[in-house]
Structure formats: C-alpha cells, structure tokens
Amino acid sequence: MTTRFRASADSVDVTPPEGFPLGGYILRSGVSEGVLDPIYARLLFLAVGDDALLLISLDWVYIDDRWARGVKAAAAKALGIDGDRVIITATHTHSGPGVFKSFITKEHQEAAYLSGVSGRIVGAAGRLPAAARDVTPLLGSTQVVGLGAHRNDPALPVDDELSVLTLGGSNGGAVGRIVTYGCHPTVLGPENLRFSADWIGWGLAAVDRQLGGLSLFINGAAGDVSTRFVRKGRNLQEMKRYADIFRETVLKAESGPIPLSGNEIEVRTTRVPVRYRDLPGREEAERALFAVEKEIDDARGRGAAPGEIRRLESIREGAMVSLFFTSGGGFEEILGKRVMTAVVVLVRVGSMGMIFFPGEVMSETAISLKATAKGPLAVCGYANDYFGYLNRASGGYESSMALLSPDSINEIIDAARRLVGEQA
C-alpha cells in the first residue's frame, strides 16, 4: 500500500504589547502605538511514514540562531524528529517586533517576549501530529506581476515566480499551503508605528478566507526585490490593493497544479564556517555617509523621481550602518558572540526541492539555482538564522549592509549549489 502524506497546520498570535519597539527600519523613531494586524507564527507539519518536517513562518524581520536553536530542539523533541527537520523562517516584515538587537530593541522587553513566543510555538507544535490527516501535495506556480521589482533598477531581472504547494485533504478541503515568493514587504514605511505583517499578512488572510486552510508564506530571493518602484502609496488603500494582487496570483497558481512525483520527505544540511567582513575606518565611513547625503541633496534639487531618491536613501542607510558598527567597536561587540556557521538546508518533498538560506538571497542567485535544479525548486531566505545580505556583487546598498566577508558569501552560495545539484 502506498504511504500517504499527512499534514496539519496552526497559527499562534505572537503580537507584542503596545510600547514594544518595531524592527526593520533604521530611520524609524518611536515605539509601537497599536496593532494594524496581528503578528503570527504559522506552523505546518508534514509527514510521510516515519519522516516528518515542521515549517514555522514568523512575521518578524529575521531569525537569530541563538534563539531559534532552542525552539527547534524543543519542537523536535515534542514531535520525535531531528532538529534539522524543524525550519523557522521570517516573512521579513518591516513593521514587526524589533527583536535580536535590531538597533532599537530593549533587552529586558526582548527576553520576556521571546520566552513567551518560544513556549507558544512549542506547545502548538506538539499538538500537530494528532491533528494530521491524509493530504495530496499539489504544486502550482505562476509569474508575479505588480508586487515587486528590482529595487536598484526596475529593468533588471528578478525571480518573479510564485509557487504554491497545496496540501489538499481527502474531503476536498485544503489543510494548508506553502506560498513562496521573494519580495520585501515594505508598503508600510518607517512612519508606521503599528504592528503589521504588511501586505503579506493581509494577502494571506485574503487567501485563507477564499480557499480555506492555513497558508504559510516563505520569503524567497527578496534581497534586491522590493515594492519601491511598484507601490502607489504607503497607506491602507495600497495594502488592500497589494493583498488583492497577492490573492489573485495565488489563485492563478493554484488553478493548474500538478501532483508531485515521489512520496518521501528528505532533508540535507550543510554547515559553512563564515567570518564577518572587514569594516571601514571611522573617517572612511563618515566620508561615505557625507558623499551619499550630498547625492541625495543634489537629486532633490534637480527634481529626481521618488524611486531614485529612495534608492539613494537606502544607500545612505547602508552607510549609516557601516558607521554604526565601526563606531561601536565592530560586529561582535554590537551583535554579541555567536556561532559563525551558516547552515544551508535542502528539503525535498517528493519531486519538489526547497533550499533555505540564513540570510537575504539575491535575484541572480535564485535564477541561477533554479536553472540548474533537476526539478521544481523554491529558493527561500531568512531561515533559522540571519547573516545579512548574501550578495556576490560589490558596491551599492546590499554590499554596504553586508555582515559577512565576500569569501564567506561565495562559500554559502556554492554550498547551496552543491545541495541543489545533488537533488534527485
């Protein structure tokens, strides 16, 4: 008898209290003044025979291994699986809680909040196996139009594929779905002081209302993709418009799905030793910040388009970050000691692969990996840890914001390429 996939899903409200700092924007001032929409941890359990996988998607800006490894271990113990089979990702909302030393976090607030979130996630995870029911995985995909574009030059190519792995129950209803697409959720700007998952949260709610089940969003190659050149405003009307586009795109992807071949869940992990990049001296960092501020003034003086102004402002943010770390004594002094190992994970569900990176993946990397993959592949970022922008190119915002040395970034991408090449 053929072994069937089984799945269950649940969500946990992990919205912090009013007054907790928000994370995501360096230029934001002030703490949270309320909730626009809840901050969720969404969990999806998938098993076939004795093999199982737990995916957790959090409406946070990123994940830190120093917190995640404890949650993964506790959830794995509750499920009776290996810790590598628990994967925690962040949707990368810039209006979620400011955790993991995201420049403005208060440590006493963070510790209590993280402890509470850990307990609720592990508790929810432990209930999932009993709720699992037979499902058939169906994979659909489509091209995204109207959500994101390359944030440095909208004419440059990006990975514009949205994939949906739907886990349909035997009664015709969906247990859940995994939606993967790469784009910064930044319709809301730094002036927003209410917690929100941004357009991703609104879009997931719209999908689930129409299709049923629980949808998880796993952000893809969003490192150089954003709403900058696409959005028409930074207000609730634009959030609603984005949610509608997202819902329609998911519906389109689900309209022509194909069953996956194979009935196994495989997880392969590679651990890559990494080091931080060399920071500029203080004077060099100050000169770089002064130079880009002059560029911004000149651009405004000649009436440059808003998108061009925002691009220069993002470069200024990168210069500010370099100066911040340089002035503060370096990455380790500010971010604290950590295990300098980047973990790359390949998950295979039947014939579909999912490659998880501990940072922000660039468009070029995703396009290249998908071109060499032997089957359908979803490229996923912000998984289990955060080592910043994984950008091979030099210059520009992403390089100035990078945490790791160029050699380390290359080694992470090469490790992912080897895993994808091994995909059966």
Key attributes of the depicted protein:
alpha+beta; 10 helices; 424 residues; four-stranded mixed β-sheet; 19 strands; globular
Instruction: Give the N-to-C terminal Cα separation.
Output: 23 Å
Query: What is the β-strand count?
Result: 19
Radius of gyration: 21 Å
Q: What's the number of helices?
A: 10
Mean pLDDT: 91
Number of domains: 2
Strand percentage lies at: 25-35%
Please summarize the sheet with the most strands. Answer: 9 strands, mixed
Question: Could you spell the SSE succession in H and E letters?
Answer: EEEEHEEHEEEEHEEHEEHHHEEEHEEHH
* Poorly predicted runs of 5 or more residues: none
Spatial shape: globular
Helix proportion range: 25-40%
**Class of secondary structure makeup:** alpha+beta
How does this model look, in words?
With 424 residues, the chain is of the alpha+beta class. It has 2 domains: 5-270 and 339-422, no CATH class; 282-329. It is built from 10 helices and 19 strands. It has helices spanning 65-79, 107-131, 198-211, 236-254, 282-301, 306-327, 331-335, 363-372, 396-400, 406-422, and strands at 5-13, 22-23, 40-48, 51-58, 86-90, 96-97, 133-143, 149-150, 161-169, 174-181, 214-219, 225-226, 258-259, 265-273, 341-349, 352-356, 360-361, 377-380, 389-390. The strands form 5 sheets. Strands 1, 3, 4, 5, 7, 9, 10, 11 and 13 form a 9-stranded mixed beta sheet that branches. Helix 1 (65-79) links the parallel strand 4 and strand 5 (86-90). Helix 5 packs antiparallel against helix 6 (306-327). The model has no long low-confidence stretch (mean pLDDT 91).
